[in-house]
Design brief:
227 residues; alpha/beta; Ribulose 1,5 Bisphosphate Carboxylase/Oxygenase; Rossmann fold; five-stranded mixed sheet; three-stranded parallel sheet; 8 helices; 31% helix; 22% strand; globular
């Protein structure tokens, strides 16, 4: 059954054309204007691509540092040995640990949004992969969370680094800010994401990679972006 929308949503559609395509700056302005949540809602980008996730040569998964962050501060944990504790803490990690952190994870105590580690530590996390995986926090080289440069990685995540990847429908969904962001900051975040996706264009994709781009607030209509 089609999704039913409330009166506020229906009233907006009386003055707004959901099917129209807007330049990036105007689209960012409109998604702010027509957001009707009582709080600063999240602005998400939904991108329909020409990639088919069934084929390995069409997979898309990478990261990008949004110039103005997402408006949400991520709690970062670093799983490492004691000799790297001070380095991780100085870089801004919220949680740093080794055996004690592993024990907490085994108990299901995942008090973090992102988990970073080094390649040599991955073997120790193998036994908790079934806990971390479903929560979306299992470190991965493709997600940029398995690294030999802990300091730089923690800094990037804190500054607004986000991961983007294809879902099973060939689409990408990423939060790029809040409705209380200035329009130009939303636009610059959007452009950074789109450029990053184009930079990792899979060799197996023929034709146009980015086929449909929509900006959506937490509460409000989606705005289609011309690209």
């Amino acid at each position: 059954m089609p999704k039913k929308h409330g009166k506020k949503y229906q009233d907006i559609l009386k003055e707004f054309d959901k099917k129209a395509l807007y330049e990036k700056e105007e689209a960012c302005d409109l998604v702010k204007k027509y957001s009707y949540s009582s709080f600063p809602g999240t602005v998400e980008v939904h991108i329909k691509t020409g990639a088919n996730p069934k084929y390995n040569d069409q997979m898309i998964r990478s990261t990008v540092v949004l110039p103005h962050g997402t408006g949400k501060t991520k709690k970062v944990a670093v799983f490492t040995t004691e000799d790297n504790f001070d380095l991780a803490k100085d870089a801004g990690a919220d949680v740093v640990g080794y055996k004690d952190l592993l024990e907490k994870i085994e108990k299901g105590e995942l008090d973090f949004d992102v988990l970073i580690t080094t390649q040599d530590m991955m073997k120790d996390l193998a036994k908790v992969a079934k806990i971390l995986g479903p929560r979306g926090v299992m470190p991965s080289p493709k997600a940029g969370t398995v690294t030999n440069n802990i300091k730089e990685t923690v800094n990037e995540v804190k500054k607004g680094r986000v991961e983007f990847k294809l879902d099973k429908t060939g689409s990408i969904h990423v939060a790029i800010g809040k409705t209380n962001f200035e329009t130009n900051k939303l636009k610059e975040n959007l452009e950074a994401l789109l450029n990053a996706i184009e930079e990792v264009r899979p060799s197996g994709v023929k034709g146009k990679l980015l086929q449909k781009i929509t900006l959506s607030p937490t509460m409000g209509p989606g705005v289609q972006v011309k690209y």
